[in-house]
Write a structure and sequence with these properties.
The protein is of the alpha+beta class. The chain has helices at 43-55, 85-96, 131-143, 155-167, 208-229, 242-255, 285-292, 304-379, 385-395, 422-434, and strands at 4-11, 15-24, 27-37, 63-68, 74-80, 107-116, 122-130, 149-154, 175-181, 184-191, 194-202, 235-240, 259-262, 401-408, 412-419, 438-451, 454-465.
């Protein structure tokens, strides 16, 4: 995960919530959060408010993830006769226009594969939203100058992400997770760490009468799940609004025969120093889940046009960055080249200074070399005896013994000795012929004799000593 700042945004009919996180060395922590009333009925004013919120952050986030509340979309849990990703995708496209009275162009859909079963069927969560509703929200963000929007998640998946984050996979029994928020409630049921049921309810939990209605709706959701799955729920976990959670827990304890627990929305959430939730009646649960554990989110409801615009913007940014880096590279190379030229000039100046100092010594050395060369030319018409002896010593194999090495007339070489076989003598002759020191190598004689029951070949080899070229 690259370092930088990311923000999650949730907008409904009454409020906007923005949570910003900073990633440092691969670790994310919440570095800012804001909740303000907003009305989408006045897009210009809403855009101005959103712009002001983002300007209050020290740094504009590089990536924006948008969260849409569950009650603003249609969700269906389906069992379809396929386990192939390509076939599932085609079936979901057909299903997306069956559940709303709109054409294909007027709906945005996404799906989450919950389970691929051994009988060839798959359990899938299909989510459908009206294009107009989604585009209105994105349009307001665009008017506010908010760039980098790349994801639009469903609050149910964001609540699931928060659940996985705070429970850390330790919850073994089926659990109902209820997020109490301003104006609505989100209900999830998690079975073996899988999201198997979701529901959104519009209500104001600050009203005691509505709170009783919420308890009834939660009971209905539980009974619906039991009827459809034939499974039971081990516990109910309430989170979000602190005061409402306590009141709802009391109401549910009278209705349900399961354990009801309250989990603080801040549990397990890493906050930067000085960051806290000012109003405990506002739930940031889903924005936390979306921001801190985005890998759990499978459904992206962002329209294709907005996605292409983001990709174009990203491509343009990458091209600008690449051009800047290329220019920077050229500048660096040019700088290195100039520095090397300067270093070379300084180095050559130093050498010239030193050469002037040692010039008399160099002239004396040149005269000596000239004298040595003249002597070598006088002596170098033929190799020295020591060079011939060294060459003979190098060439002579271990099984050949020499009894005499002689020079005749200063240019002829005579070698006498013995070898175990005649073939060894011939090999020795061949080796001498290959040497650049000798030419005209020939065997003058090679006689066999027996000594201590061993045959020895006595030989004499003559050769001409080559002139030095």
């Amino acid at each position: 995960m690259p370092d930088g700042r990311t923000a999650s945004v949730e907008i409904d009919d009454n409020y906007i919530k923005v949570v910003e996180a900073e990633t440092v060395k691969g670790k994310k922590m919440i570095c800012g959060l804001i909740c303000k009333p907003i009305s989408l009925q006045d897009p210009e004013n809403a855009a101005a408010q959103i712009k002001e919120i983002f300007q209050s952050f020290k740094t504009m986030p590089e990536h924006i993830m948008l969260n849409i509340p569950r009650h603003l979309v249609t969700a269906r849990f389906l069992k379809i006769p396929s386990v192939t990703d390509e076939e599932i995708s085609k079936i979901m496209k057909l299903e997306s226009i069956k559940h709303l009275p709109y054409t294909d162009e007027n709906v945005i859909y996404g799906y989450r594969i919950i389970e691929k079963m051994d009988d060839g069927y798959s359990r899938v969560l299909l989510v459908i939203a009206q294009s107009e509703s989604v585009n209105n929200i994105i349009g307001i963000l665009n008017k506010a100058g908010i760039k980098g929007l790349s994801f639009l998640s469903l609050s149910s998946e964001a609540l699931y992400s928060w659940s996985m984050l705070v429970m850390d996979g330790k919850e073994k029994e089926n659990a109902m997770v209820v997020n109490l928020d301003v104006g609505h409630i989100d209900i999830n049921i998690i079975e073996e760490n899988k999201l198997v049921f979701t529901r959104g309810i519009v209500c104001d939990t600050k009203d005691d009468r509505i709170l009783s209605k919420a308890a009834n709706e939660i009971e209905i959701s539980m009974n619906t799940y039991r009827k459809e799955s034939s499974s039971s729920i081990g516990k109910v976990i309430l989170t979000g609004q602190a005061a409402a959670s306590e009141d709802l827990k009391a109401a549910l304890s009278k209705k349900l025969k399961v354990s009801v627990e309250i989990m603080d929305q801040k549990a397990g959430i890493p906050f930067a120093e000085g960051i806290k939730i000012e109003d405990e009646n506002v739930s940031f649960v889903e924005t936390f889940g979306l921001l801190l554990r985005p890998e759990d989110i499978m459904i992206n409801l962002i329209p294709s046009e907005a996605r292409e615009e983001v990709q174009y913007s990203l491509l343009r940014t990458n091209l600008i960055t690449a051009a800047f880096l290329a220019l920077l590279f050229v500048v660096i190379i040019f700088g290195i080249f100039v520095k090397k030229l300067h270093d070379r000039y300084v180095y050559m100046s130093t050498i010239n200074t030193q050469l002037k100092k040692i010039s008399p010594t160099v002239e004396s050395a040149r005269k000596m070399l000239k004298d040595i060369k003249i002597i070598q030319e006088m002596m170098g018409r033929k190799p020295l005896a020591v060079d011939v002896l060294s060459e003979v010593y190098t060439i002579t194999p271990a099984n050949v013994s020499l009894t005499m090495i002689g020079f005749e007339s200063g240019k002829d070489l005579v070698l006498r000795g013995g070898a175990p076989e005649l073939s060894e003598v011939l090999k020795y002759v061949a080796a001498l012929e290959k040497s650049s020191c000798f030419e005209g190598v020939k065997v003058k004689y090679a006689n066999k004799r027996v000594v201590d029951n061993r045959e020895i070949v006595d030989f004499e080899i003559d050769a001409m000593i080559s002139k030095v070229k």
